[in-house]
């Protein structure tokens, strides 16, 4: 199924040890670009979160924020992490050798430093497992939203493709009449001017006019490209870049049609085609 890159999901879970909530939002981006905002005590899990996104997504700028609200507990359940405390003490002592007048942090300031206190009453592994499970659930919900958005984008693109096919069919139907009318117009002008021209020269001018006005090849390529767009919309996996390339090819044929136009009708048709192609291109920028 075609997936959009624009989506948002929020999940929250309450446990005995506290409340966690994830917010995951994504927007269009050429590559997969994840960003995380995590509480200090869960920062070590960032690599596993990134791995989850790499397995489930291909493109998009994805912003992930985790909020954690611990349950208030007695201070007796808190203990000092000796390794982190020693590392902090060493850092403060080393700074003291470099700079004069540095004040020693107060005990309260030290306790507020990330990683100094640890809550021995909490099951750390259970907390981490719950955070990872909720992250997966949030990402899955976001993916479902991306798929729903993708379905809507496909409908919009299909409508534009149908309009393009209709315009191409109309121009094809009118093309023989347009060329015949231009040929007759040239002959009438020569007759009015009573020009005595070499019949071979007249025939050559008519052939040149017909060649310039003949856009059958461009019209055929337009239809070929619309068929390929429809085929791509049914493919699995990321298709946004391929669709963007096809928009460039469609626009190229529309520009050629415009440059070869010899009557107002085909000029207007070329303009309408370019408008429809641009509308599709804007939507395709959001497709994964």
UniProtKB/TrEMBL annotation:
<dbReference type="InterPro" id="IPR013551">
    <property type="entry name" value="YicC-like_C"/>
</dbReference>
<keyword id="KW-0255">Endonuclease</keyword>
<dbReference type="InterPro" id="IPR005229">
    <property type="entry name" value="YicC/YloC-like"/>
</dbReference>
<keyword id="KW-0540">Nuclease</keyword>
<comment type="similarity">
    <text>Belongs to the YicC/YloC family.</text>
</comment>
<keyword id="KW-0378">Hydrolase</keyword>
<feature type="domain" description="Endoribonuclease YicC-like N-terminal">
    <location>
        <begin position="3"/>
        <end position="154"/>
    </location>
</feature>
<dbReference type="GO" id="GO:0016787">
    <property type="term" value="F:hydrolase activity"/>
</dbReference>
<dbReference type="InterPro" id="IPR013527">
    <property type="entry name" value="YicC-like_N"/>
</dbReference>
<dbReference type="GO" id="GO:0004521">
    <property type="term" value="F:RNA endonuclease activity"/>
</dbReference>
<dbReference type="Pfam" id="PF08340">
    <property type="entry name" value="YicC-like_C"/>
</dbReference>
<dbReference type="Pfam" id="PF03755">
    <property type="entry name" value="YicC-like_N"/>
</dbReference>
<feature type="domain" description="Endoribonuclease YicC-like C-terminal">
    <location>
        <begin position="171"/>
        <end position="288"/>
    </location>
</feature>
<protein>
    <submittedName>
        <fullName>Uncharacterized protein (TIGR00255 family)</fullName>
    </submittedName>
</protein>
């Amino acid at each position: 199924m075609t997936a959009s890159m624009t989506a948002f999901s929020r999940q929250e879970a309450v446990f005995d040890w506290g409340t966690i909530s994830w917010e995951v939002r994504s927007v269009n981006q050429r590559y997969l670009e994840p960003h995380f905002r995590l509480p200090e005590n869960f920062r070590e899990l960032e690599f596993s979160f990134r791995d989850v996104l790499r397995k489930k997504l291909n493109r998009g700028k994805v912003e992930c924020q985790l909020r954690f609200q611990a349950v208030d507990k007695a201070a007796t359940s808190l203990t000092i992490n000796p390794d982190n405390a020693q590392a902090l003490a060493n850092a403060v002592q080393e700074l003291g050798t470099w700079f004069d007048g540095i004040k020693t942090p107060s005990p309260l300031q030290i306790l507020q430093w990330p990683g100094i206190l640890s809550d021995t009453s909490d099951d750390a592994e259970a907390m981490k497992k719950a955070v990872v499970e909720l992250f997966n659930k949030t990402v899955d919900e976001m993916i479902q939203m991306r798929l729903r958005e993708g379905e809507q984008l496909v409908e919009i693109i299909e409508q534009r493709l149908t309009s393009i096919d209709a315009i191409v069919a109309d121009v094809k139907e009118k093309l023989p009449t347009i060329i015949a009318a231009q040929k007759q117009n040239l002959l009438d002008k020569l007759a009015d001017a009573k020009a005595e021209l070499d019949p071979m020269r007249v025939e050559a001018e008519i052939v040149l006019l017909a060649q310039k006005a003949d856009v059958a090849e461009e019209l055929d390529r337009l239809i070929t490209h619309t068929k390929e767009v429809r085929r791509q919309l049914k493919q699995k996996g990321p298709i946004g870049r391929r669709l963007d390339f096809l928009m460039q090819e469609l626009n190229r044929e529309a520009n050629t049609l415009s440059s070869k136009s010899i009557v107002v009708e085909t000029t207007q048709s070329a303009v309408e085609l370019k408008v429809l192609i641009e509308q599709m291109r804007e939507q395709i920028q959001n497709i994964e």
